[in-house]
Structure formats: structure tokens, C-alpha cells
């Protein structure tokens, strides 16, 4: 059974048959062991004996090819490396397809622009593996738009996956909105909208505070001017 980290790179193997979606007990390999000379090839036949009561939907198995180096007499074999090959199966019948998508910003209020991050959370709550791809769009109310590709790959039934979407925002007042459009084979796109992100730079607040202070100072200065009586009203009234 294959599992992926948040970056989609690291692969870990679970114990055979530990998942209800595992097809490990159905599989027979022929030949199970063989010697592969240098620069030679060896076909391996995979035979799946699917039970009659198998659950409809997606099932999967990892065939792990392990190379050994023969040791001296009386010594144990040493493993050089292993190569997993992942096989995805779909058992026909009635099954549901459900892909849940969330797009969550790390911050909804920012005092400056620069690096911003959204978390794209995918959960395959259906019964069959989904081949996903797509894009995340980030649009500013006053600035232009950005687009980031979603890491393509296979999402197994019950699997959760998170992708970090990083965008550089300009250091100016703006309101940013983001949405995700996740494509999958043979089904309607799954979409999600994120909460708005407001950028209100600190320097703008400093300028606003300075402007307010200047206006207040000017008003007080006008009110302090003496009234010579020639004007119809005293200064500042």
C-alpha cells in the first residue's frame, strides 16, 4: 500500500493486507524468485484472483522487487536495494466518487506583502482512486492574478494530502481571494474557495496617522489665532 508525505515524494509501505483496500492477498507473481544477469531482462507475470465478494471500487498493491547479493557460505544474504511497483485495480460494481477540497490561508490579515501561503487539503472520501491535477488561482482586487499548479498524482481511497501554495503579494493595500480547481478523470471538477486575505501595510497606517496629526495641529493653530473683530466669526468657528 502506497502512502505519500505532504510533498508527494517520500513513499512508505504498509504491511500487506493491513488495509481493507489492499489487494496483496489476491496477487501471485510468477516467477517469485529469479536470477537476473547483467544487462538482461526478465518478465514477471502478475495474476490477481479477485474474490467474488470483493468490495467494489479501488484497490491497490505494491509489488516490491528486492535485489540480493549472495554472500559467502554460511553468511546471510545482504539487501542491496528494493524497487516498489504500484498497481491500482478497480473492481466493478456500485461505488461512490467523492473528493473533498479545502483551501485555507495561513493569514487573513497582513501588515505587509511578501511571502504568503495557502494550504490545499485534499481528501478522497470515495471508493475509488482519483487521478488529480489542476491549479490554484490567487487574484488581487487591485493587483493582477497568480496561478500555481497542483501537484499531479493518484489519491487513494481514504487518503489525505496537503500541498502548500506559496505566492508573493505586493506590499500595497489590497484584498486577495484564492480558489482551487481540482481536475479528475471522468468526473466533475472539485472546487474550493478560500477566505479573503487583506493586506494593509504598516507604512500606510503611519502615513494616515501623520496626516491626522497634521490636520489636528492645523485646526488647533487656527483656533488659537486672535480675533480682531473685523471678521464676522472668530477663526476656527
What would a concise description of this structure say?
By secondary structure, this protein is mainly β. 9% of the residues lie in helices and 46% in strands. The chain has one helix and 16 strands.
Distinctive features:
single chain, 237 residues, mainly beta, Immunoglobulin-like, 2 domains, three-stranded antiparallel sheet, 16 strands, 9% helix, elongated
How does this model look, in words?
- The protein has one helix at residues 202-223; strands at 2-4, 11-13, 27-30, 45-48, 57-69, 78-91, 99-105, 109-110, 114-124, 130-140, 145-149, 153-155, 160-169, 174-184, 190-193, 197-199.
- Strand 10 and strand 11 form a beta hairpin.
- 9% of the residues lie in helices and 46% in strands.
- It is mainly β and 237 residues long.
- It folds into 2 domains: 2-91, no CATH class; 99-199, Immunoglobulin-like (Sandwich), CATH 2.60.40.
- It is elongated and about 105 Å long.
- The strands form 5 sheets. Strands 8, 10, 11, 12, 14, 15 and 16 form a 7-stranded mixed beta sheet that branches.
- The chain has 1 helix and 16 strands.
